[in-house]
Design a protein that fits this description.
Elements (H helix, E strand, L loop, with lengths): L25 H20 L4 H5 L10 H20 L16 H4 L5 H21 L6 E3 L6 E3 H27 L5
Antiparallel strand pairs: 1-2
InterPro entries: DinB/YfiT-like, MST-like
Protein name: DinB family protein
């Protein structure tokens, strides 16, 4: 592996995430951990240029930090708004004919992708806050079966954990920054 010279490594952004709770209700723990993972992604993107965020530094993979923002904005919308809340909203960066456009096309600016991702996270938080019971259900679109808010929160934790691992590798390859 090629080591990034120390003079190219960027200083890490200030980590201002709330510490993860050691105790709490199931809802408090699930939402705190999900927000922590959301902010981890933001920290992985902090301090990079648009060109760096859109670059694909681990060939032959099409992954980029810009693409991860687009993908996770779409995941937030799909799971919380479409599947759980039953909102009739268009998909972001996805179609049956072009399912990988979130990573491959990178239409629009990084600022637009970041704003869309933050907006979808905020919308998801409002849905969760307005739902009294984690056993409340939406409809799983693929099967027509009920899907609980608890299941969606757990799925999104796994989604962010997986993609934050990708973000770790991408950021390290871009400028040597590790951590968070």
């Amino acid at each position: 592996m090629t080591e990034i010279p120390a003079h190219l490594a960027q200083p890490m952004a200030e980590d201002d995430r709330e510490p993860l709770p050691l105790t709490g209700t199931e809802r408090e723990l699930l939402t705190a951990f999900l927000d922590w993972h959301r902010e981890t992604l933001a920290l992985k993107c902090a301090g990079l240029s648009d060109a760096e965020l859109s670059s694909r530094p681990v060939p032959p993979s099409a992954l980029s930090l810009h693409g991860l923002l687009r993908h996770l904005a779409g995941a937030e919308r799909w799971w919380f708004r479409t599947q759980f809340a039953g909102e009739d909203v268009p998909m972001l960066h996805y179609s049956d004919d072009d399912p990988d456009q979130d990573f491959e096309r990178l239409d629009g600016s990084v600022a637009e992708a970041l704003a869309a991702w933050r907006g979808e996270c905020d919308h998801s938080r409002r849905i969760v806050a307005a739902t009294a019971d984690l056993e409340a259900t939406g409809t799983h679109r693929a099967t027509g079966d009920p899907i609980s808010l608890r299941r969606i929160l757990i799925h999104m934790l796994a989604e962010y954990a997986r993609h934050n691992g990708h973000a770790d590798l991408l950021r390290e390859r871009l400028d040597g920054t590790t951590g968070y």
